[in-house]
Amino acid sequence: xxxxxxxxxxxxxxxxxxxxxxxxxxxxxxxxxxxxxxxxxxxxxxxxxxxxxxxxxxxxxxxxxxxxxxxxxxxxxxxxxxxxxxxxxxxxxxxxxxxxxxxxxxxxxxxxxxxxxxxxxxxxxxxxxxxxxxxxxxxxxxxxxxxxxxxxxxxxxxxxxxxxxxxxxxxxxxxxxxxxxxxxxxxxxxxxxxxxx
Length: 197
Known about the structure:
Blueprint: E1 4-10, H1 18-31, E2 37-43, H2 64-73, E3 76-82, H3 90-97, H4 101-104, E4 108-114, H5 121-133, E5 137-138, E6 143-145, H6 148-151, E7 152-153, E8 156-157, H7 160-175
Parallel strand pairs: 1-2, 1-3, 3-4, 4-5, 4-6
Antiparallel strand pairs: 7-8
InterPro entries: Flavoprotein-like_sf, FMN_Rdtase-like_dom, NAD(P)H-dep_reductase
Family: Belongs to the SsuE family. Isf subfamily.
Domain NADPH-dependent FMN reductase-like: 5-146
């Protein structure tokens, strides 16, 4: 695997975001997999993204074109979000609304969610559903950081097992960045499932 590019999109706007800390840890692990791996934190605080309006062209919507180009240029994307009201954050929703098949179809995507309470399973499920609608290939391994108020101390993970799970997400993003979601095989023309039955 040469020149693998991993982008991590942080869906939290907080200055002291635990989502950003966890996403940065996943990107660090991805970068350590090889000298040909480059990572980039796509911090949504740095982008002017107005609420999505389907009647407005993306080129006229603040930094939406720039954001989409950064995601499109990546071989794999990590989506990180805090869980708000049982789902993922509105800044990340807006960012994803400005993207489409050009940015995500066939692309490897890893999911990370953080919550102040119990496991943020619903946020992960909602993100997986959106990625599936965009024909992305979502890594089966996902990272959930519950009880974020006590999960970090001075910007570092308290639990090494939890840190390892987050780091593994970054490693998997590199490992599966060039996966072929629908590879050909010598029987591919016969593998039609229930078609015609």
